[in-house]
Design goal:
The chain has one domain (about 1-285): TIM Barrel. It has helices at about 1-20, 45-50, 65-70, 120-135, 145-150, 155-170, 185, 215-230, 245-260, 275-285, and strands at about 35-40, 55, 75-80, 85, 100-105, 110-115, 140-145, 175, 190-195, 200-205, 210, 235-240, 260-265. The protein is of the alpha/beta class. The chain is about 40% helix and about 20% strand. Strand 10 and strand 11 form a beta hairpin. Helix 4 (about 120-135) runs parallel beside helix 6 (about 155-170). The chain has an eight-stranded parallel sheet with strand order 1-2-3-7-8-9-12-13. The protein has a three-stranded antiparallel sheet with strand order 4-6-5, with no helix packed on it. It has ten helices and 13 strands.
Length: about 290
Amino acid sequence: MIRVLAVICLLQVAAFGQHQHDSPCPKLLGNVNTFAAVYYDEQSLAELGKFDMVILDPANYTSAQIAILKSMGCMPIAYLNIGEVETYRSYFTLGDTNLFLSPDPYWRNRYYADVCSSAWQKIILKERIPDLLRKGYCGLFIDLSDLLQEYPQMSGCAVSLIGQIRREVAESNLILDGGVKIINRVGSEIDGVAVEGLMGFYDFNSDTYKIRPDSIEDHESTILLQAAKKFRIKIFQLDYAAPSDVSNRDGIIMQSRRLGFVPYVGTIELDTLFVNTVRQIRILNSEKKNPFPD
């Protein structure tokens, strides 16, 4: 009898765990008004849970933590770099160097990937994506990094890979980062697009945070706004500012909200969680008078 009860208890625990794993995502992407990108191990789930959506490095979070965030009403999205081979990931072996095009000049242990390679596509489609979705993430944040700036001839293969990723993730959310150059070719395959450093960016050469000229902002903003209207996709803006530069951070958030984007301003390493972003966006959303008159 005791043995039978023990088996029943184990089955109940397993079922509970499976229920947590299969718990539905708490929001539609279109209803996301605040988000954060956290590529490190942020221990405070309560702080992360203040955002509508968080983009996480999946190496740092368990399935149980993902389930907790979802129960808090926060939508966890897994970061996946499809434009670079990251040699610190579990999928990498020394035999994979044939996938390299050249080293990323700004980030150690990262190499631009040959997205035309069937071996690289297999890693992404058959190893990485199934593993991430099994953990309960509500979708993927796929990053092309600067691949298409360095290797524009790879754009056709990148478009093809994104189409294959769409089929793999099925109904899960798919957000593309670093794809402004191909947005009109993949807009129907994605649910959201992200742009980095649109207003505030990090200059690796001078080791300082800077603000972009308005002309560059306006050009990219126009492309994004047209794509958002054409494909009915959400735009997420990930900008960068010094940790102590509250004024610059607040200014970027205000400008971004004026355009209708969903902003987050972090440090270049994304190693600090700026929860104040949530408070400011809620204030802006609650103001009855338009704070940005024409």
